[in-house]
């Protein structure tokens, strides 16, 4: 098949390499807002270059992948769907909830997959399987962690929608997906004790959330832009009969201390494309199946919208210092 890729930043360039290596992909067309970036990626992976997203969509592609800046997602997603093409779009649907709702409504029913790679991580899949099989008994607590080694650039943060919409959404999606439960209430707190840019942008660099799920189980989420030891992505599910965890591997960026402490083989994961490389590849392989018509979308616009609602609840909770029910927003 012939695929098109819009946006060639750090994740877009990684996707280009992954797609070029897939047997099912015969040709790849790429474009970026910066022509020099398009030229560099084209030369590296042997892709064709398009001058614009519009020309790429019209280049006879069988499907489109969107890895452009967040604020471009709604327009690009609508354009690709209007052309009758299956679309993979990196999260989030849009920078704000109103745009996310409008975008979801305009493309609902089309073949659209939203990028939440933890759904394709082998350990996360195993934990979800254990929950679904009833191996843990009644689930009472889920803990999800995303700690970045260092903040992204200011320009990226300014268009990201904030920590909850850019980072926390991965935890919100993982908790919802692994448990099979909707998030009914969010209480969030955060701080901006790092670089002054966070306060200047109205953002936080660390956050903690308490989630109440539809069945009464609890979720605990921890996020930070400062975790110098490495990129820390973990999930723990605790049930009345057993507990299970994902992310406790040899690259765990934690230093266990005390007699008899676990030994971490190392080296520590340093970036999301290190920790989740195999998950990203599996995610794109799944999209190839969506394009081929042999698989339904494994992460729909409605999944992404549910996460956007929870992220909005977190944003309001932080601002108003109170628990916020998602029903207030949805």
UniProtKB/TrEMBL annotation:
InterPro entries to which the protein is assigned, alphabetical: Gfo/Idh/MocA-like_OxRdtase_N (IPR000683), GFO_IDH_MocA-like_dom (IPR055170), NAD(P)-bd_dom_sf (IPR036291)
Molecular-function GO terms, alphabetical: nucleotide binding; oxidoreductase activity
SUPFAM superfamilies attached to this UniProt entry: Glyceraldehyde-3-phosphate dehydrogenase-like, C-terminal domain (SSF55347), NAD(P)-binding Rossmann-fold domains (SSF51735)
Keywords annotated in UniProt: Oxidoreductase
Domain GFO/IDH/MocA-like oxidoreductase: 124-241
Superkingdom in the source lineage: Bacteria
Segments forming domain Gfo/Idh/MocA-like oxidoreductase N-terminal: 2-112
Family: Belongs to the Gfo/Idh/MocA family.
Protein name in UniProt: Gfo/Idh/MocA family oxidoreductase
């Amino acid at each position: 098949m012939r695929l098109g890729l819009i946006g060639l930043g750090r994740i877009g360039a990684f996707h280009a390499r992954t797609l070029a290596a897939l047997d099912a992909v015969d040709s790849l067309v790429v474009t970026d807002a910066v022509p020099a970036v398009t030229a560099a990626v084209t030369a590296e992976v042997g892709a064709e270059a398009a001058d614009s997203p519009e020309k790429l969509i019209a280049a006879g592609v069988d499907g489109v992948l969107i890895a452009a800046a967040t604020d471009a997602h709604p327009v690009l997603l609508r354009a690709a769907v209007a052309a009758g093409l299956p679309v993979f779009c990196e999260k989030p649907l849009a920078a704000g909830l109103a745009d996310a709702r409008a975008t979801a409504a305009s493309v609902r029913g089309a073949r659209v997959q939203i990028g939440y790679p933890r759904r394709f991580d082998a350990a996360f899949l195993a934990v979800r399987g254990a929950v679904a099989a009833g191996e843990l008994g009644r689930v009472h607590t889920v803990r999800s962690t995303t700690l970045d080694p260092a903040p992204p650039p200011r320009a990226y943060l300014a268009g990201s929608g904030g920590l909850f919409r850019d980072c926390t959404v991965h935890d919100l999606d993982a908790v919802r997906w692994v448990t099979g439960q909707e998030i009914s209430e969010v209480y969030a707190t955060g701080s901006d004790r790092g670089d002054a840019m966070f306060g200047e942008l109205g953002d936080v660099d660390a956050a903690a959330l308490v989630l109440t799920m539809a069945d009464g189980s609890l979720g605990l989420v921890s996020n930070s832009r400062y975790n110098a030891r490495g990129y820390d992505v973990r999930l723990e599910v605790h049930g009345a009969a057993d507990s299970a965890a994902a992310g406790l591997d040899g690259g765990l960026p934690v230093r266990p201390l005390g007699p008899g402490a676990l030994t971490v083989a190392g080296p520590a994961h340093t970036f999301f494309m290190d920790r989740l490389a195999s998950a990203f590849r599996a995610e794109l392989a799944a999209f190839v199946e969506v394009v081929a018509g042999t698989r339904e979308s494994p992460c729909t616009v409605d999944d992404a919208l549910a996460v956007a609602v929870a992220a909005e609840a977190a944003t309001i909770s932080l601002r108003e210092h109170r628990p916020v029910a998602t029903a207030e927003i949805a």
